[in-house]
Amino acid sequence: MKPVLALPLTQELFQSYGTVLDVSRDDVTVITANKGSARKYLGVSEALNDYSQASVPHCTGRWNLFQSKPTVPIVPAGQIMIRVDTLERHPYTTQTFTPMGRSADEPAYLVVVAPNADDDGPDWTNLKVFIAFGTQAITYDANVWHSPMLTIGKPTVLTAFNYENGIMQDDCQVKTTSTPVPVVTSNELEAAIESASK
Ligand SMILES: NC(=O)N[C@@H](O)C(=O)O
């Protein structure tokens, strides 16, 4: 399987799969708030609840916390950083991850997504991989295939918000592949990691 290059996460590159919650967004209205002490970025992301289409419509909007071990090592540009063999999706809800305690200049987690294939599973030949930095949160659109959380370099706590009805097939569908997809780091990532680890 041909390696996939991990690219820095931007709304422009990610927009087919969801939204990036980041103060670099220049496509939203920004107002002054909190008596002038804050800039408020309006509507950077939305939470979708489509459980009316699920087997059991009743659901709960839930925050979960992920205390993640680092699963993505820091490697030189061009070397394989991870092999992706598992993707999941949430057919009736968005899912938003927000890292806590990571800085804006350090790569914090990988965002791996894939379009649907004709069999309604993931298109493993068309994975996209992005590097999320420490002050970037993301929302996966409903029904978008994405990898379980993959954190870079150090233990990381993230909040996750999504709707759930407690039925696995409605809440989270998982697919695996016997031919894992290698992901290689990019020069941008290597430079960012090097500067963050100083
Ligand atoms: N996406 C991810 O890391 N995992 C969640 O979907 C989950 O609820 O397990």
From TrEMBL:
Keywords: Hydrolase, Lyase, Purine metabolism. Pfam families: Ureidogly_lyase (PF04115). It catalyses: (S)-ureidoglycolate = urea + glyoxylate. It comes from the Eukaryota. Transmembrane segments: none annotated. GO terms for biological process: allantoin catabolic process; purine nucleobase metabolic process. SUPFAM superfamilies: RmlC-like cupins. One of its GO terms (molecular function) is ureidoglycolate hydrolase activity. Homodimer. This is Ureidoglycolate hydrolase. The gene is dal1.
